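Practice problem: predict the structure.
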Amino acid sequence: MLGKFSHARLVLPRAGVNLDEFPELQAHSGQIEWREAVGRDETPLEYARLDINLAPLELGNPFCEAKSELKFLEAALVSVPSVASRTQSYCGAIRHGETGFLASDYQQWCTVLQGLLERIELRKCIGVRAHQEVLGPYGPQQRRSLLAELIGRLLD
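Answer:
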C-alpha cells in the first residue's frame, strides 16, 4: 500500500520494531514515522493522530490468539477505524465492515486497506460506528452498572 499510495505513512513504535526483519519496507523508509512509547494518559492522543489503526497478529499462534481486543478498543474510543487479524478476540469485538475490518490473508489486508485509503468517508463512518459500539459494553455507564452490582452483592 505504501508503494501504491505515496501520501500514506506507516506509524511504528521505535522500540520493538526492527526494519531488517521486513526488507520490503526498506524502499519505503521515507514513509515510515517512528514514534516513542507514551504513557497511558497520552495513548488516546497517539491513536487520535491516526487515520487507520492496524492490529496485525499471526493467525494460529497461541500467543497471538490469547491477546485481547485492546488495540481495537483504544482506537475506537477516539473514532479511528481498525483493521485487525481475524483472531478470536478481534472477531468477538469487531463487526466486519460495520465497526472495523477483519483480515486473515494478504489479499484481504490489501483490499480493506485500499478501500480505507481511497475513501475518507468510509474511514470516518467506520470510526464513528466503532466508537458508538465500544461505549456500550466498555464505557462508563456499563462500568457504573457493574460496580453497583458488585457493591450490592457485597452488602447482601
